[in-house]
Specification:
The protein is built from 14 helices and twelve strands. By secondary structure, the protein is of the alpha/beta class. The protein folds into two domains: 3-243, 3-Layer(aba) Sandwich (Aspartate Aminotransferase, domain 2), CATH 3.40.640.10; 246-392, Aspartate Aminotransferase, domain 1. A seven-stranded mixed beta sheet has the order 1-7-6-5-4-2-3, sandwiched between helices. Strand 5 (167-171), helix 7 and strand 6 (189-193) form a beta-alpha-beta unit. Helix 2 (50-62) packs parallel to helix 9 (233-243), helix 3 packs across helix 8 and helix 10 (246-265) runs parallel beside helix 14. The longest helix has 26 residues, at 367-392. The chain is globular, with a radius of gyration of 22 Å. The N and C termini lie far apart (68 Å). The chain binds pyridoxal-5'-phosphate (PLP). Pyridoxal-5'-phosphate binds next to helix 3 and helix 4.
Length: 393
């Protein structure tokens, strides 16, 4: 079954009792049982719920595996993986530019429990291999990364990690299963912030953990009901609806992102464009091998000041200034003051987040409108500079 067909039909039969093609929402906390220890597979919705179960099966199917667990957010999903697999004395190797929330979880929560976190440039495979040791328990790869879209070789990293029996986790949020299938390159676990492209409409906060092997998912599933960060049935239903158009949306997001990256690259006010589809992107060759498309996010550095970057992101017509990404409506953000607002400037710079870095999540609007809006903002900066310099004279 091809991908688009799977998003609509896999694990999604019409409802048995009425034939409804859209599944009902099982908005229930509990289930009437026939007798003690006798039920229809559901006893209490923190443990399991038919709408959530359907979503978990669909998400697993899209990643080409059989086991999934849905969570109340991407970070709750990440927390469950780390809690399931880490013990005091263990070490984690994570790419240097992981999403800020993952960085905080690793360095402000898990390191308190005696876990050592190493952040590395995963494109340097010999440095990676040199840091691996028998205490390395988890390898955390975010590719493409957020917000700079750096790309890492999942297969090469997994092969090296498995020699030390470390668990390879891939955060596949930015690529989505439409553009990247991490299990086919050796990943043990795939994580999603479902909040983003999978749900796709900026109306849900949700996460998921997928695994090929039920024994790998089991400790995560145990934490799902033991710690209780589960999504509600309505949110699961919204995501199931969003997934049905995943391929259509991703194609449009990628088309818009490609056009924007190419346009910005040629503009004199832009210092650097981060988009894996550009041939001069350092991870371009890996992306070509590992992904079936380059995704829908573009970041760029303005050749200017922080104030200009802040004015630019605040005055777009179609790009709403906001955290998050992956919705049908375009979003723009200024990582230095938003996701990295609480991080010191040197630490931010070290992670490649400059004062003028801007991240775009182009939505599904018409490409010409988006380009016009972005270019108009650059023309406004040029005009302001002219006025400024003529005043100075
Ligand atoms: C790549 C990535 N992973 C994980 C997360 C965390 O997901 P959530 O916000 O759903 O908790 C995010 C959120 O922005 C993200 O961008």
């Amino acid at each position: 079954m091809e991908f688009a067909t799977r998003t609509i039909h896999a694990k999604q039969p019409s409802e048995a009792e009425t034939g409804a093609v859209v599944p009902p929402i099982f908005q229930t906390s509990t289930y009437q049982q026939e007798a003690p220890e006798q039920n229809k597979g559901f006893s209490y919705s923190r443990t399991n719920n038919p709408t959530r179960q359907r979503l978990e099966q669909v998400l697993a199917e899209l990643e080409g595996v059989s086991h999934g667990a849905a969570f109340a957010s991407g970070i709750a999903a990440a927390n469950a993986i780390l809690q399931a697999y880490l013990r005091p004395g263990d070490e984690v190797l994570a790419s240097k530019d992981v999403y800020g929330g993952t960085h905080r979880l690793l360095n402000q929560v898990f390191n308190r429990w005696g876990v050592t976190i190493h952040h590395l440039d995963f494109s340097d495979l010999s440095a990676f291999e040199g840091t691996l040791n028998p205490r390395t328990r988890v390898i955390w790869i975010e590719t493409p990364s957020n917000p700079r879209l750096l790309v890492y070789d999942i297969e090469a990293i997994s092969q090296r990690a498995h020699k030390q029996s470390a668990l390879v986790v891939v955060d596949n949020t930015i690529a989505t299963p439409y553009f990247q299938q991490p299990f086919s390159f050796g990943a043990d676990i795939v994580l999603h912030s479902v909040t983003k492209y999978l749900a796709g409409h900026s109306d849900v906060i949700q996460g998921a953990v997928l695994a090929r092997d039920s024994a790998v998912l089991e400790p995560v599933r145990f934490l799902q009901y033991s710690t209780g960060a589960v999504p509600g049935p309505f949110d699961c239903w919204l995501t199931l609806r969003g997934i049905r158009t995943l391929e259509l949306r991703m194609l449009r997001h990628a088309e818009n992102a490609t056009a924007i990256a190419n346009t910005l690259k040629a503009h004199p006010l832009i210092r650097k464009v981060y988009f894996p589809g550009l041939p001069d992107h350092p991870g371009h060759d890996i992306a070509r091998r590992q992904m079936s498309g380059f995704g829908g996010i573009v970041s760029f550095e303005l050749n200017g000041t922080m104030e200009e970057a802040k004015r630019y992101v605040s005055s777009r017509r179609y790009f709403a200034l906001g955290e998050s990404l992956g919705g049908v409506e375009s979003l723009i953000c200024h990582p230095a003051t938003m996701m990295f607002g609480s991080v010191r400037q040197e630490a931010r710079q070290e992670r490649g987040v400059s004062d003028t870095l801007i991240r775009l999540s182009p939505g599904c609007e018409n490409r010409r409108d988006l380009l016009e809006d972005l270019c108009l903002g650059l023309t406004e900066i040029e005009a302001e500079r002219k006025v400024g310099s003529s005043r100075a004279r």
